[in-house]
Specification:
Elements lengths: L11 E4 L15 E4 L13 H4 L2 H4 L8 H25 L14 E4 L2 E4 L1 H32 L3 H15 L3 H16 L3 H26 L3 H9 L4 H31 L11 H12 L2 H32 L2
Antiparallel strand pairs: 1-2, 3-4
Helix pairs in contact: 4-5, 4-7, 4-10, 5-7, 6-7, 7-9, 8-9, 9-11, 10-11
Length: 319
Amino acid sequence: MPKNGSLWQLGVKFRYLRPQPGRRDSRRVRTAVASQDSKDSAIDEPTVAARFPPNVVSRGRWWNAQWFDTLQFSVFSGALLWLVVSGATGMGYNWQWYRVPRFIFEVVDGELIWGPLATGLVVTLEITACSVVLALAVGLVTALLRLSDSFAGRIVAKVYLEAVRNTPLLIQIYLFYFVLGPIIGLDRFWVGVACLSAFEGAFACEVIRGGILSVPRGQWEASDSIGLGRAQAYFHVILPQAVPLMLPPLTGLIISLVKNSAIVSVIAVFDLTTEARNIIADTFLSFEIWMTVAAIYLGLTITLSVCMSYVERRVRTGH
């Protein structure tokens, strides 16, 4: 310390940079620089992209505005519709939309009669519901086997995953139908359910395993400290914390299962796709029926996505 006790005679000065709202350089830091080097030195300030989140930096730009997103979607949808209509017109196709509603439902003598597309949709929902439950069960068991200390269990789980994930779904359903079905005695409906469950269960396994591994190791140690067994720790401590992390990818998996359920049409299960093919074979309304079926699948998956988003928010907030 110098005799006069003045910091200024040490050649050091302090700059107090206060944040000012609305200015781009709002995030400043308190710095101390040597006065003799102040003219030759520059304060290292982070870039705008580093100091602000991307949504703040891009706010106000017209290409990120909501109206522009809506415009893009409208233009894309209009272009797609124009391509379909132009293609059908070039083929000399005769649109007959007035014939489509009776394939969904019709009223005869005051009685509501469901059409083949409605009954096919019910079968699709049944297949999806059964397959989701079994796929989650298969995925949970396989994930626990992969995380177990059993060498044989890990090998069995690994072989199953590699075999299912690296072969086409169409080949798998043929193997289930022509090989496994006759041996076990399953009908076509349950063959389709079993095949979809095995296929989606392989992907559910990795989702569940990733969710379990994301739980901090300290939770296992805490479970051991209060005397919980491995099974108790899984179901009372680990899985309740892992489920919120699993929900987003599981939502995508369930939506994928809804779309993949159309594969059962190749083994003559009368789902939505099979009924559509039968109607087209009888009426030749190719464009109308396939566009109607696509709209039904789209409405089904969007509804499912909205419901799962609601469940995810409820689980995360704990209400």
